[in-house]
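Final report, results section. Input specification for complex C-07:
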Amino acid sequence: MDRSSRHGTIPASSSAPRVVDVLVPVAIDHAYSYRVPRGMEVRPGEVVTVPLGPREVVAVVWAGNPAPDPRLHNRLKDISGKLDVPPLRDELRTLIDWVANYTLSPRGMVMRMSLRMGEHLGPERVRPGVRLSGEPPRRMTPARRRLLAVLSDGLLRAKSDAAREAGVSAGVVDGLVDEGTLTTEPMPRSPPPPPPDPDFAVPDFSRSQRAAVDAMRALASNGTFHVALLDGVTGSGKTEVYFEAVAETVRRGRQVLILMPEIALTGQFRDRFAARFGERPLEWHSELTPRNRARNWAAIAAGEAQVVVGARSALFLPYADLGLIIIDEEHDQAYKQDEGVRYHARDMAVVRAHVAKIPIILASATPSVESEVNARKGRYQRIALTSRFGGQHLPRIELIDLRREGPSRGRFISPRLAGEIVTAIERREQALLFLNRRGYAPLTLCRGCGHRFACTICDAWLVDHRFRDRLVCHHCGFSMPRPHQCPHCAAEQSLVAVGPGVERLQEEAAALFPDARTMVLSSDLITSIETMRSELNDIAEGRVDIIIGTQLVAKGHHFPRLNLVGVVDADLGLGNGDPRAAERTFQLLNQVIGRTGREQGRGVGYLQTHQPEHPVMKALVAGDREAFYASEIAARERTGYPPFGRLASLIISAGDRPSAESFARQLAAVAPVDERIQVLGPAEAPLALIKGRYRFRLLVKSARGVDLSGYLRDWLASAPKTRGNLKLEVDVDPQSFL
Ligand code: ADP
Ligand code: ZN
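Structure output:
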């Protein structure tokens, strides 16, 4: 049954016009009233087009309006038309309302994530195809010859594909159509994606996996709201295990959503999925072409796509019948969207599962402290995998104390680490040098006068990117050619790079290991998802000896020959004043070291650190996860940080510092008094200037049970309004404190 018809159609009455409230995809919270033209039937959730100012927009009927204000009758506009797509179901509309309310985002902007985007929502456009049929042209050119060679098989091809394959412009194709050499025909509509086969290749599960597999199947076949934390060490087979919940849901004919923090991960994942289910899953992320986006959206809404793997935005898609959600690497901070609608996809996925009354699985080797506490309190069911598949040992971890055995000045790889890498390469194994810093060096200065190169519109040093020969701001993207002269004292050849980035490490690795094949993996060097997939493939197949990478390589990948990871600066994330710094460092290092020894079982991780006695380093070396969580949970409880308390931050920015500061003070002054809530600040943000805007922050801290969103809404309703170029951003449950 189509559940969205529960409210029925909006009844026609003879006298008053029929009016409905329609949510438009712009930054507005409330729905607008529109008249339903005679002869049209609409239901809540229906996707329509409406006039909005001078434009026509795709919008969604949110509710009937049985008693519209009679004074409005003459001013209401008509709905222009209905789109031939399934209505957004109650479940999704409830989620949209919920997320908007919780994050204090305009409802129209949240809803927009479900439509994404209007212009592609119509029926799939028919693509013109061409086929060789007539006489060869009278005048032959090299381009025409290439095109005819491509089409010589007589098959129908999309015009754009034919041009691309032959390396010719669309004009060349059109020319041959005009001459009658080629004929055009519409391309047939693309068929629905083939369904995954739940029984295609069920693996043999090990004894230690079996209990988890049974739990997965049970949870999927119960099909009710339930949160499971699939807590398994790296290499324990979490993916194979949760695939059984996927299989069970597919057998029941319902859809599955698998969220991943990073689309870089979806390449290997697609292949693993295909090995298990015989077909690839449908993908949803920002790199899809508009055409694939439209096609995938339609397949999801029609229920033709059974399994969708995607980035966080896939959470808001209009699934016809979602039956299970899986959040892979649930602790990853990439699940938090930090602009526009600021939402945490993991948390909102739990809300969606609750609204839809379906199970959700959170998978991680290092759960977030929030999820760990929920599991300890019994709110989430813990399903544990405590050993690696195939009896492989977990990697051993050793510390390299940079105070005693560090490299020489200007070098970053310690002698001991270098020695171990030599041994690994001699054994024909791979090594990974991990440094979470893009570029060549984080700072450039003049040896003569001490001048440091900073961004002109951000409070940030420019990062030297030698591969591109530019200095780049990591906050606004500003870049300039690397100068040869100091702009301050005019000295020549006086600029020095301070500190390492991955590009500089590659230079050092090339000097230390001249015969090794190295590859740098860093998000800024990726030109397309396809090239990245092929690079990851080169690594997996052993065509690289030393991988040098940022966090891009830390996650999820399975590189069979990798047995050694050297963390170049294990302290990097610890000192930034973020309440989750220790947790993030623990997770990231655990995850990157977890890439090793996955097939041969003798992985080893070396942590280069200045703080060998830090609790995070000690817990890692001892392999004592419990110790880490125990001390971290105790600290959060003591200080009232999440999940024992709640946080929100208000970021106030303006083109000049005094306006930002004075508005932040006015705002703080009118905060309603509530003894369960503390308002801290305003303080200048750690990143005090971004893109020419000066930033101040207020941090709001409350007890766990408090409706913080409600408090913020009341506060902002009575606060002075932002004027001019003042801007106020609200971040509920902030992950970034910069
Ligand atoms: P995790 O996500 O927990 O790090 P993976 O799911 O990537 O672990 O599994 C690690 C490796 O072990 C993968 O190559 C996977 O295919 C393999 N594996 C896990 N369980 C099984 C199984 N039951 N049968 C065959 N291979 C398995
Ligand atoms: Zn900048």
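The first strand starts at residue 19 and ends at 23. Residues 203-206, 209, 232, 234-240, 389, 558 surround adenosine-5'-diphosphate (ligand 1) (CB under 6 Å). This concludes the modelling results for the funded period.
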